[in-house]
Amino acid sequence: MSKVFGEIRQLAFVVKNIDEAMKYWAEVLGVGPFFIKRKIEFSNYIYRGQSTKSPQISIALANSGFIQIELIEQHDNTPSIYKEYLEHSTGGLQHISSWVTTEELRNKKAELLTLGYSIAQECTIPSSGVQLVYFSTENPSANFIFEIADLMEPNQYNRVQDIKSAYEQWNAETVSIEVGV
Q1: 32: Cα separation from own chain's centroid
Q2: 37 and 181 Cβ atoms separated by less than 8 Å
Q3: Please, is 39 exposed, middle or buried when counting C-beta atoms within 10 Å of its C-beta (0-12, 13-18, 19+)?
Q4: Measuring CA to CA, how many Å separate 85 from each of 16, 77, 92, 168?
Q5: What is the C-alpha separation between 47 and 40, in angstroms, rounded?
Q6: Confidence check: pLDDT of 149 > 70
Q7: DSSP string, the chain
Q8: Which of 32, 57, 63, 154 is the most buried (most CB within 10 A)?
Q9: Quick check: 9 and 97 in contact, CB under 8 A?
Q10: pTM beyond cutoff 0.90
Q11: Neighbouring residues of 117: CB distance < 8 A, sequence distance ≥ 6
């Protein structure tokens, strides 16, 4: 558990090709099935302090035990933390995430800003209303970001548990399941 941000619940990887990445995770690493949402555009998108046009991304979620794995592919050149990451690497672990309630997210955000942390990106996933705040924690020895998401809200957490249950019952035959935006 991070004493600063909270319990780490997710590892997120930025990839160049989400379909190839899902196949690799499923067939080589035995993680799946992935629930994929394609061509998402965020609402309330703020990148490095500027309200701007959202990037278009696809995300795929699966569990490995209690840890959720997220794969992210950006489809355009809009400025984002995902695009930044790929400009300096070939892909890989880009952020880790803690999950809180909406009220805890507001309080933790204020606390972390008071402690001197800065926000790299924040946004909302329109279809679910999930709020994401990405804190800039990159440095030369650990080039990843810390995300806090309000996934502990009951309606959100039930979907998270459904993904975990799918992993527990997975027979390794299905790599991915498409879900609506």
Answers
A1: 16
A2: yes
A3: exposed
A4: 11, 12, 9, 31
A5: 16
A6: yes
A7: -BTTTB-EEEEEEE-S-HHHHHHHHHHTT---PEEEEEEEE-EEEEETTEE-PPPEEEEEEEEETTEEEEEEEE-S----HHHHHHHSSSSEEEEEEEE--HHHHHHHHHHHHHTT-EEEEEEEETTTTEEEEEEE--BTTB--EEEEE-TTSHHHHHHHHHHHHHHHH--SS--EEE---
A8: 32
A9: yes
A10: yes
A11: 135, 136, 137
Question: Residues for the chain: how many in total?
Answer: 181
What would you report as the CA-atom Rg of the chain, rounded to the nearest whole angstrom?
A: 16
Burial class for 99, CB neighbours closer than 10 Å (0-12, 13-18, 19+) = buried
Output the six-digit token pair for 22. Answer: 């899902």
CB 54 within 8 A of CB 75: no
Tokens of 73: 């592919």
Look over the chain and give the mean of its residue pLDDT values, rounded to a whole number.
92
